[in-house]
Amino acid sequence: MFEYTLANGTIVSSGRKTCTGNLGVQGNKIVSRGGTVSIDLKGSSFIYPSLINTHDHLQGNYRPPVGPKPGVFYLTWLPWDNDLKASDTFRERSRLSREDLYGLSGYKCLFSGVTTVNDHFPQKLNGNILPTLPVRAILEYGLAHESSSYDLKWGDGIEVEHQRAVKNRWPFITHLSEGFDDESMRGVEYLQKLEVLDRHCLLIHCIGFSDEDIRKVAAAGASVSWCGFSNMFMFNVTCKIKKMLAAGVNVTIGTDSSATGSANLLAEIKYDRELYRKMYGEDLSAKTIFEMCTINAAKAFWMQDRIGSLEEGKFGDILVLKGKNSDPYENFVGAAMEDIELLVLEGTPIYGEFRFLDIFGGKLPADYTRIKVGNRPVFVKGDPAGLYRECRRKIGFEKILDYLPFEPDKD
């Protein structure tokens, strides 16, 4: 059990005033006072709750993205699926095992400061593999693929899956209105007809929402996962994000898979802010974006009592970033992978600079390895370099995956 203090850092979190101070960890929880091990951040680092990605498909995180032909865009997701399976990217990806792809996705999350993610697939498909990842990929959710005739029929049916979510205080997660055909445009109406539109719903994409749909979703207390890059790449339009925020919808941010989405959540944050600026001619505040990736996302997952903020008694899910901007929220939005100094999951460091090794008693655990990120030596849980080398061997050349911020040493 770890007991330590991150001292003299700027603590940034919903539920507490931003200030320079100390953050204690005991076991897997945040406490008011940590143990005798103290890491002095010297006032140059910002301490945030680690990030939450509310929408990904972890088996699909391969590059480059596959999209429509130049000058055209999709009406629904189904033509994209056909294009994906006919693509060179898919043929190349098929040389890797499911374990390879999920392993890469775990590190996609880790190297972007994400410790909690939803893999939008049925638990029958991912239940055995998610616990092997270096981050927390939740298994506590009800789901559907979407609500249309070309739904992939994931799970046990919308009503059963939603009832299970309500009983267990889980989210019910589904794509909704991902397109502009007649069925997609009636997604909210369909959920209402089934009497499942409520605060358990985490609705993905929602690009076909009408103003009335937004009103209904807000009134129901449902959450939305905004995946701006994927939406623009596939459809050349995204959801009515400004109206959703004005209506009080609990908006979060997701990457979608890297087959259509951005490289990782840090890239998605920057893209979505610029997209908002282009759409509305004004800034989306950095604080709002920060909340979308932390406390809003925790609420959408029904986990706000455990994660999403740096409050005593919550899990020690912590992200320490280099201080490059005096505004803590602008510092967050502007962060790159190379700016991560430490990432902690339930009190255990899973990635960080070697100055944090004192938490481990000065010795790197056997199941951790060393790599260089931006010419900076760091430790990381597992062996991402070995995974990268093995994937390149199977692919047949030195594939570059932009969500892995390092080059593995040669064997």
Describe the protein.
This protein has 15 helices and 18 strands. Helices cover 30% and strands 22% of the residues. The strands form three sheets. Strands 1, 2, 3, 4, 5, 14, 15, 16, 17 and 18 form a ten-stranded mixed β-sheet that branches. By secondary structure, the chain is α/β, with parallel strands linked by helices. The longest helix has 16 residues.
Secondary structure: elements and pairs:
Layout: E1 3-11, E2 19-26, E3 29-31, E4 37-40, E5 45-49, E6 51-56, H1 78-85, H2 88-93, H3 98-110, E7 114-119, H4 123-126, E8 136-137, E9 142-143, H5 158-168, E10 172-176, H6 182-185, H7 187-193, E11 201-205, H8 211-220, E12 223-226, H9 228-235, H10 241-247, E13 250-253, H11 265-280, H12 286-292, H13 295-300, E14 318-322, H14 328-333, E15 340-345, E16 348-353, E17 368-373, E18 376-381, H15 384-395
Parallel strand pairs: 1-4, 1-5, 6-7, 7-8, 9-10, 10-11, 11-12, 12-13
Antiparallel strand pairs: 1-2, 2-3, 5-14, 14-15, 15-16, 16-18, 17-18
Under the CATH scheme, which class of the largest domain? Alpha Beta
CATH fold call of the largest domain? TIM Barrel
- In quaternary terms, these chains amount to single chain
Strand content: 15-25%
The CATH homologous superfamily name of the largest domain equals Metal-dependent hydrolases
SSE class? alpha/beta
Q: What would you say the CATH architecture of the largest domain is?
A: Alpha-Beta Barrel
Q: What is the percent of helical residues?
A: 25-40%
Mean pLDDT across every amino acid position:
96
Rg: 21 Å
- List low-confidence stretches: none
User: How many structural domains does the protein architecture include?
Assistant: 2
Shape: globular
Between the first and last Cα atoms, what is the distance in angstroms? Answer: 34 Å
β-strand number: 18
Question: Can you summarize the main beta sheet?
Answer: 10 strands, mixed
